[in-house]
Amino acid sequence: MAKDEQTGWIVEMLMASVSVAPAALLEEVMADERCVAFGPIHHFIVGAVLLACWRNAEASGERDAMLKDDLADLMSRSDCVPGATCARWGVCGAAASAGMAYAIVRGNAPLRSEGWQEGQLMVSELLAAIARSGSPRCCKRDARVAIREAVSFFNALGGPQLKAWEKTPACDSYAVNTVCMGEKCPYHPAMLSAEERLKAQATKPE
Fold first, then answer.
1. Which pLDDT score is estimated for 1?
2. How deeply is 183 buried, as exposed, middle or buried, from its count of CB atoms within 10 A (0-12, 13-18, 19+)?
3. Do residues 181 and 135 touch, judged by C-beta distance below 8 A?
């Protein structure tokens, strides 16, 4: 399947979204039946969700044009990050994707000092959080960790403010993950209280 066929529906969904809560929007994207359980598509999704929420929070009259350009730029950058980078490079693609989005927002460039250090520090924090989360081959968990950790770094820019999403989503991909951590994962349904499970089911996008 061509890259544009894999990402076209994501772009369409994000262009139509008005959300400023990246974690909530991430759940909407990952709940779509077209979103696969694993793979490098998540290297695009994480940054794309952050960019969409950022441009929504800016509330600029140029939002559509800016976001369209942002997503095209991100798609080009994320194409350079293949699957299994967490094992082969020692860098999770979800964290790298958040770094790409941050770099796009800041206008980072190889010879531009502003934003360079902050972007590196953010990605290092995301990688640490993902590494502490447990085990390989769970793109959904790593995407959730990356998004939640990235919000505070984007908000520290002092411009638009992204909203944290306090609900704990119940993972519905664990059954197809042969190396799922099970109850060691905070998103495993068994780890949610009865009240949280009911809330997660009630708020799950249709």
1. 40
2. exposed
3. yes
